[in-house]
Amino acid sequence: MIIEDNTTNTIEINKSKFITYLYKVKSIKEVNDYLNNLKEKYKDATHICYSYIINGEIKYYDDGEPSGTGGIPILEVLKKNNLNYIVCFIVRYFGGIKLGASGLLRAYSNSTSLCLKKTKIKKLEKLIKIKFQITYKENKLLENFINKEKIIEKIYDNKVSYIIITNKDFLEKLENLNISYNIIEKDII
Description:
The chain is an alpha+beta fold. It is built from 5 helices and 11 strands; from the N terminus they run βββαββαβαββαββαβ. A hairpin with a 2-residue loop joins strand 4 (47-54) and strand 5.
């Protein structure tokens, strides 16, 4: 599952402020870019805890909170929701009242959950990169159909060759059209 949109939410618990950010990410570089932006924006924050899951790679960080009270509760909420390609940052401003370990666990967990409730979660769809050829006549008939996909390359030769990124539904529709086509390459990405 993935989130549809980047989302933010703020809550206050015993005068401590928790500002949560959820971002869709595809790489650790993106995570680091977001983290650097938040560090710049919230220079005076007490902590910026986070967790991410990117295609099986997992990391959590407590940023000075007692061990396991910041990053792990965030991560547990992400896992419980079967999320992937996501990072959750929680910026904390200490309000002067200590929450204790169990209070911090609840605060970081609730902050993440509340922010998730503000966004749509959708099923992660595997994309396929295919290269196929069709005749010029078939190209005329299918041009609108094909143009709805992400076209990487279009080559005119004795036939028209396409390299597109799409989903399995496109292949099923292509098969049902009763046209002659030749798939040259097919990779799941």
